[in-house]
């Protein structure tokens, strides 16, 4: 009889390889010509506007992000608390430029929707696995899988979306395109009535607006 492996207390990363969403050509051209990047740097460029999804012009992009945020929160995590998008920005990588590993502070769930990418582009998620966190030992591994990996590479072609807990370190490989790679990134927080009553009758009241 084969053993059953339970991936308990895991860190789920949500990945849809192709949402079928494509930004229209006029908007993509605007993103590529640096209109949204007044302080462009040839390394990893971020928009100065960190609330870009508040612009009504980008409502179709916002709908896609909010739909998959809701799917991740309710269908995967089983949480009924309301999550909403706080910060949002465009991230661009020129050819052969990567994006180093980093977390997103002041956020609970983060995400990226890839507006222009390629099958060879990767989001790289890094975190020490449970054994390495518990014991300061570098184990010799015969193979890498989802249980023992310290990093996981996720293919992110145009139309892909990925969501993850914001404390996870993540980055991207060097852009393999001969053109700019563009992603719409966002952070989230929660609001609503978080009041709870435990089995002992002790209640905690908290309402976030």
Instruction: Quote the CATH topology.
Output: Jelly Rolls
- End-to-end separation in angstroms reads 52 Å
Major beta sheet summary: 7 strands, antiparallel
Q: Uncertain spans, ≥5 residues at pLDDT below 50?
A: none
Averaged pLDDT, please? 90
Secondary-structure-based class equals alpha+beta
CATH superfamily: q2cbj1_9rhob like domain
Radius of gyration over C-alpha positions, nearest whole angstrom: 19 Å
Shape: globular
Task: Estimate nothing, just give the exact number of structural domains.
Answer: 1
Order of helical and strand elements? EHEHEEEEHEEEEEEE
Tally the beta strands: 13
* CATH hierarchy: architecture: Sandwich
Key attributes of the depicted protein:
alpha+beta, four-stranded antiparallel β-sheet, Jelly Rolls, seven-stranded antiparallel β-sheet, 13 strands, 209 residues
Give a written overview of the molecule.
The model has no long low-confidence stretch (mean pLDDT 90). The protein has 209 residues and is α+β, with helices and mostly antiparallel strands. The N and C termini lie far apart (52 Å). The chain has one domain: Jelly Rolls, CATH 2.60.120.620.
Give the gist of this structure.
With 209 residues, the chain is of the alpha+beta class. 15% of the residues lie in helices and 33% in strands. It has a single domain (14-134, 145-208), classed as q2cbj1_9rhob like domain (Jelly Rolls, Sandwich), CATH 2.60.120.620.
């Amino acid at each position: 009889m084969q053993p059953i492996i339970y991936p308990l207390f895991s860190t789920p990363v949500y990945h849809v390889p192709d949402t079928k969403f494509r930004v229209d050509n006029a908007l993509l051209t605007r993103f590529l010509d640096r209109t949204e990047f007044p302080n462009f740097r040839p390394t990893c460029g971020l928009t100065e506007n960190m609330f870009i999804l508040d612009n009504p012009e980008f409502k179709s992009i916002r709908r896609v992000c909010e739909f998959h945020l809701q799917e991740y929160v309710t269908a995967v995590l089983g949480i009924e608390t309301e999550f909403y998008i706080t910060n949002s920005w465009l991230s661009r990588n020129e050819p052969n430029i990567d994006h180093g590993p980093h977390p997103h502070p002041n956020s609970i769930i983060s995400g990226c929707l890839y507006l222009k990418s390629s099958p060879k582009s990767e989001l790289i998620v890094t975190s020490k696995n449970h054994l390495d966190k518990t014991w300061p030992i570098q184990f010799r591994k015969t193979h890498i899988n989802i249980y023992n990996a310290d990093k996981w590479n996720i293919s992110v072609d145009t139309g892909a979306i990925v969501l993850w807990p914001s404390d996870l370190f993540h980055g991207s490989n060097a852009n393999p395109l001969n053109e700019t790679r563009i992603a719409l990134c966002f952070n989230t927080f929660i609001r609503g009535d978080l009041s709870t009553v435990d089995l002992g009758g002790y209640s905690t009241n908290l309402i976030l607006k």
